[in-house]
Structure formats: structure tokens, C-alpha cells
Amino acid sequence: MKEYTKKVPVFDERSSATARADRLRRLRNIANLSREQLCKNSGIAMATLKRWELAYYGGLPVDGAKKIIECVAQEGIICSLEWLLHEIGVPPSIDPQFIKKSALFKPCGDASNKTWINFDEEEKFIINELLLFRKNHHDAIDLRISDDGLFPKYNINDYVAGVQVSLDSIDSLLCQDCIVQLQQGQILLRNLRKGFQANQYNLICTNEQTTVKEPILYNVNIAMISVILRHYKKPSSRLEEVRPCL
């Protein structure tokens, strides 16, 4: 039986064994896989998967997470290692161009099928910086940008992070670029404007050529919001610190 030994450094609750177990179960449900199916497709022992999903003995390790990600990719689910281990970046999503054809896939663990789960050194640096930022700021919120709504200032696959601001002070952030979590749970990077109803706000894409289907979201209810204090550009490893306007 294969042993999975690459332990995950735990910097905060979102990296804990319990949080990893919750995301693992969520990922398996998104892929519509039972435990039996996932184990059959991945070669992971049933007892091992159960331990990971129950957060036993330190929970899901790095090498186990990579195996899981390879396996759900065969079901057309895109998931990043940093999300599964630390909840950094966007949650798993369905690949819109995916067509399941078993003959096109190699067995899990094949070295040629790992291109999108391996991090280069630059991305490892960014993830470590984000984990350190979380460690130093209890109310940190971060996002891996997945659209061009605020291009060219913020590019797809850039990372941004900040610290949550009290909703009582939200009006002080008007006309600023903010990380916003909607009450439905979605996290976006948008420019904040006043809504047409009390305690509601409009979220604006400042890129006039954006491909976002809804460049303006009107009268949304906001669950969390943060100004941008860290901006990590890709492929450049340069860190930009963005201070709120006074």
C-alpha cells in the first residue's frame, strides 16, 4: 500500500486538517464521485481516503492532494493544489471544453498528465507569501483573479490579498478596487460604487473591453470586503503594496 507522507504546513484554520477534509469532500461531490469510484480511478486505498476525509492523522497530505486533483481532472473538474490545501484562489470548476473520452486519458500518476498541478518556483513563492500574510492578519481575504474585469491593472492569474473591512465602514471604500465576497459566497475583484437601494452596492468592471458577461452587478448584498494590500503579478514575481486612498 502506498504511503503518502508530504505533510502540509498549517498556518491558519483554512489550512487545517479539518478544513482540508471539508474541501476534499466538496471536490469529490463536484466531480460526482463516490468514495469507491474515486479510489478505483485513482488507486488510493479506501481506508486512506476515509482518513483524509475525516481529518485523521494530520489529514490530506500534499502528495495525496496531487493524486486527487489528477483523478478529478478525468471527470472534467479543474482544481488547483493551493485551493485544495489552503483555500487560496478560485474554487474548483467544470472545464467547459471537457469531453469525457476515456481513451484520451492516461492513468492517474502518469508524469505527462501533471502540467497544471505543478507549481513553478515563482508561484510557490507567491503562495508562501499569501500564507504568511494570512498568518499575520486574522481577517485576511485573498483571490486568484480569473477574469479581465479590471485589466490592465489586474491580469488573469494575478493574486490579490487584503484584510476585511467592517461593513459599517464600507462607504469609505467607494470608487476603489476591492476584493468583494457576495452573500452567495462568490469572491470577485471589482470597483465599488453606491447602489440604488440602502445597504446595497454596484460592482463595476473598469475594463471597457472586458469579456465578463455582466460587467456591472447592480444592487448586490456584500458579505465581506477588503481593499487590496498585496498584488502579486504573474509572470513577474514583483510584489506591489497598494495603500487605500485617503
What does this structure look like?
- The chain is α+β, with helices and mostly antiparallel strands.
- The protein has 6 helices and 11 strands.
- It has 2 domains: 13-118, Orthogonal Bundle (434 Repressor (Amino-terminal Domain)), CATH 1.10.260.40; 137-240, Umud Fragment, subunit A.
- The chain is 26% helix and 20% strand.
- Strand 5 (177-182) and strand 6 (187-194) form a beta hairpin.
- The termini are far apart.
- Mean pLDDT is 85; it is low at 101-118 and 236-241.
Enumerate the strands of the largest sheet in spatial order, edge to edge or round the barrel.
8-7-6-5-9
Structural class, judged by helices and strands? Answer: alpha+beta
Mean pLDDT: 85
Number of strands: 11
Per CATH, which architecture of the largest domain? Answer: Orthogonal Bundle
Shape: globular
Could you name the CATH topology of the largest domain?
Answer: 434 Repressor (Amino-terminal Domain)
Quaternary class: single chain
The domain count comes to 2
Order of helices and strands: HHHHEHEHEEEEEEEEE
CATH class of the largest domain: Mainly Alpha
Gap between N and C termini: 59 Å
CATH superfamily of the largest domain: lambda repressor-like DNA-binding domains
Low-confidence spans: 101-118, 236-241
C-alpha Rg, in Å? 19 Å
> Sheet with the most strands?
5 strands, antiparallel
Share of helical residues: 25-40%
Number of helices, counting only DSSP H or I runs of 4 residues or more: 6
Strand fraction band? 15-25%
